[in-house]
Prior knowledge:
Layout: H1 3-14, E1 28-31, E2 40-46, H2 49-57, E3 62-67, H3 80-90, E4 94-97, H4 100-104, H5 110-118, E5 120-129, E6 132-144, H6 146-156, E7 165-167, E8 174-183, H7 188-193, E9 198-203, H8 207-215, E10 218-221, H9 230-241, E11 245-248
Parallel strand pairs: 2-3, 2-11, 3-4, 8-9, 9-10
Antiparallel strand pairs: 1-4, 5-6, 6-8, 7-10
Amino acid sequence: MDLADLRTRFDERLRTAAFADLDASANGLQVGPEEGEITHVAFAVDAAVETIERAADAGADLLVTHHGLVWGSLDRVAGREYRRIAPLIGNDLALYVSHLPLDAHPALGNAAGLADLLGLDDREPFGALGPEHLGTQGLARDPFSPADLATLLDRELATGARGVQTLDFGPEEIEEIAILTGSGADWLDEAVESETDAFVTGEGKGKLYHEAKEAGIHAFLAGHYATETFGVRSLRDLAEEWGLETTFIERPTGL
């Protein structure tokens, strides 16, 4: 498949253009030619030296990640930027990135994948950012206890040695759950206003403890990396449907 065709498919499916004014990430093709034959695509959460080199070693023509190399502007290619871009160019490996578009997608996105894991029904958009929503909320088919929800997240996600951090301030039974993966602490108030029992995100901020306690809501911090593998795995499934060879590069950070 031609790179131009593949990037167009991803851009259209993920509505990349809709996030141009909302996202600091330069979503879409960040490194690579406008055209070129793609037969093997690697997928990873982060575009780092290790994942880039592992993609090249796997023989990939394209690396697709959630976290890319360009945030805002790229003033110069030196230091860390050089160390990451050099192996891409040296191995003729293109880089495609989808940050907020991949968080937000109602079927392919990170929050959608986590909601599938938790078995949430009656889903609604959650996590407003301008005209878009970055997460989802829904009703658990069977209520969770706080301990059971934490155990499920620990068992199914690559949370690392620290495991899931739980701020246990909500009701004994958890039915309505709001999800915003990655760094979602600033959306706790929306979870409270939506009258959810629990808020699941990746990482928190110091203020989250008292805000959750005062609001009487559970907060589960399952790790930035651990909550954001769903989107790139969904894109991998798409690429395989389109007849491409794929590789998923797992590199948990424990953070």
